[in-house]
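note to self: dont lose this again. the chain is below, predicted strucutre after it. 339 aa total, dont forget to put it in the shared folder this time
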Amino acid sequence: MIWTSPVSKAASTDSGCLTDVGRIKVGHYTEQRRPTGCTVILVEGGAVAGVDVRGAAPGTRETDLLSPLNTVEKVNAIVLSGGSAFGLESASGVMQYLEEQRIGYETPVARVPIVPAAVLFDLQLGDARIRPDKRAGYLACKAAKTKACEEGNVGAGAGATVGKLFGSDRAMKSGLGTASLRVASLTIGALVAVNAAGDVLDPKTGTILAGARSPDGKRLVNSMEQMLQGKYPNPKVAGENTTIGVVATNAALSKAQVTKVAQMAQDGLARTINPVHTPLDGDTLFALATGSITDAPNLTLIGSLAAEVVSQAVCRAVLRAKGMPGLPSCQDLTAYPRS
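---
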């Protein structure tokens, strides 16, 4: 029986984007020499930020700063990048751009831009010596705009793949996705680059959208079912994964509250990626609160919506991705039977 990927409400094509939150710009740099790139989320007026790191192989910068125990309240940008740890250099280009705009944390001698970052591993695609650098981060800032809904093989998602528990040769192409939700005056948005070791599924139906394929590449095998049958081999992709993203709200939140939102938002990954938060992944989600509405925040509502919008963004990341030679996506014309 031929299986095709139904597009459910959770993965619909009209789900908005992160910039719907307001006071946020998104810019991408997509490398043309090989599939990689970086994405910058600019909040030039500053936003209260938190982070939650669940994967065991993270590549991050300035995440300790975001602890509610520490001093600085607001960030000026978040960077998501390919290139593994090398890609952290792209945050320096974002700092250069913000310094030129005289944006940053005020000190007696300089304004210091606050730019946390996280990276994913995409070095296996093409020449690993080509990765996002300082120039890439700077150009992503120059390209940033307030109506930015580009998805798929763009920015930090350019080299993203999923379904790698049985080796990269059995993986599928993924990418970057974004979505937003509104409830009354409250807006929640998310942007996620999905580079998971596990499969991506539609949380509404349980249907696998993209994931590990059979050795002949013609079927989806369902990684979790394979493991339940004792068919999981020794990992071939240690540290070569990681899903990274940003969730944002227009609510006014404290650092402790926005950190809780980041924590709750991780449930969106757990609903759509299986398995997730593994020793092979460095899954990291940042959360931002721009504070443009001053109503007393309902943290349960905000965190619950954050998880939902993250799950939508994850689905869109695989639905909007375009395949490459040897790496089909769920957009490809050939339908994949389920084994």
